Amino acid sequence: MTFDDFLLAFFSLEIVGQAWPILWTGLQQTLLLSAIVVPLGVGGGMLLALLSTVRHRLVRWPLMVWVDFFRAVPPLVLLIFVYAGLPFAGLEVSAIGAVAIGFFLNTGAYYGEILRAGIESVPAGQMEAARSTGLTRWQTMRYVVLPQAVRNVLPDLISNTLEVVKLTSIASVVALPELLFQARQAQSVTYNATPIVAAAVVYFLLLWPVVRLLSRLENRQLAGRR
Amino acid sequence: MTGLDRFLDSFFNLRVAVEYLPKIIDGFWLTILLAFCIILSGLAAGLALAVLRSLGIRPVNWLIIFVVDLFRALPPLVIIVLLYFGLPAAGLSISGFASAWLSLALVLMAFSEEIFWAGITAVPRGQWEAARSTGLTFAATLGHVVLPQAVRMVVPPLTNRTIAITKGTALASVVAVPEILGAAQAGVSFSFNPTPLTLGALAYVVLFFPVVILGRWIETRFAWKR
Questions:
Q1: How far is A135 from chain B (nearest CA, A)?
Q2: Among A152, A169, A150, A154, which residue's Cα sits nearest to residue A207?
Q3: Torsion-angle region of residue A175: left (phi > 0), alpha (psi -120 to 50) or beta?
Q4: Where is the ABC transmembrane type-1 domain (chain B) (predicted)?
Q5: Phi, psi at residue A5, to the nearest 5°?
Q6: Is domain B3-126+154-221 given the CATH code 1.20.120.330 in the classification?
Q7: Alpha-carbon gap: B135 to the closest alpha carbon of chain A (Å)
Q8: pLDDT in tens, B60-114
Q9: Does the pLDDT value for residue B152 go beyond 90?
């Protein structure tokens, strides 16, 4: 294989031109999907984290099992289970519905763990001081504890969000036409690997700034800890 | 049949379970094999890159940073698909197992390099200077003074990241590797019954639940001393 052949097979500008309309719809789907699943996950995680502040045994243990269970099952397994399994129970779910349920369960558990760690990182004195000024439990949580908690775990939240956006690529397995799925389509139409390379480049350009930002935040966090 | 009977017959069908259990068990061992390959090569490569980076050769470090950013930004499934469906265009056919191994090892390499490097930079400069002034060589300082402290510091984030990436072994089912999920999906399409998926999910829980608990334990055991 000559170098020109290699370029033609992986980096053909002509193919990129042909495939771009398909890839573009895929990119839009990926962004739309992220805009759906990230808030779902954060919402679910917030719910879990708030529940974890309840000290009662009957809440604590089921909650821990729930979180560890959904952290133990790989997201793709969960997605396939929901998408291919539920119809057997008489529940038809669309691809996007299955993705929403799967991501809610999986990423919710991760966001929940992060937010719980954040809430626990806020000194108890903050809670006590706020309560003694007459704020209700809820107001204390809302205006005193949560803002500090979120700030303390911001790098982890951003890092998890990056993982969630990357994870939307598994939706291609249930034929949701996001970026990776569209790239595979374009590949089979053009008999050329360029569309997949192009999709990888798009992912990289989209997410590189976030990776850079995280690198900085993590280094700063570590420097503060020594 | 009542709803519950139908549900049990679908998801917990004993006859189907008995028939497909051996396949799932084969998949279980394959998943473990794949996971070990990924963890060993990924962590070794990550540590090697971090050590290389500590030599402080500018162009080399830029290259390392770029490679690390690249594999942190790309979704693992995109890399797997690129290797498996893309490489044949270059005349290089690669098995599903090899493409999953290589892809996830590269991803783990990137994340672990970042973590190891953070640990190395977190060891106070005075440790370097003191060790060098006692006559230890650069390599001896790194190997006997800095790395032991650095690695100990980064055990919790490293464990969590390794677990998260190892769960990506399920992605290998997309490139026809009969690991747990692949075996389960094959079982579903042969038996027209989702019980193999239930078994598969259980197999993952059996595999990863202890690992997740271990991760929790390590997190408290090696907690940062503030």
A1: 30
A2: A169
A3: left
A4: 28-215
A5: -60, -45
A6: no
A7: 26
A8: 999 999 999 999 999 999 999 999 998 888 888 899 999 999 999 999 999 999 9
A9: no
The answer to whether A197 faces chain B, any CB pair under 8 Å, is: yes
Which pTM does this prediction carry?
0.89
**Is A169 within 8 Å of B224 when comparing Cβ atoms?**
no
Reference A197, options A184, A214, A215; nearest CA is A184
- For residue B176, what is the DSSP state? T
At residue A90, the 3 state secondary structure works out as coil
Which residues of chain B lie closer than 8 angstroms to A113, CB-CB?
none
Q: Are B167 and B208 in contact (CB under 8 A)?
A: yes
Angstrom CA distances, A94 to A79, A101, A117, stand at: 12, 11, 34
Distance from CA of B224 to the nearest CA of A (A): 8
CATH topology for A3-225? MetI-like fold (1.10.3720)
Cα distances from B166 to residues A77, B68, B117, B207, in angstroms, run 13, 18, 21, 11
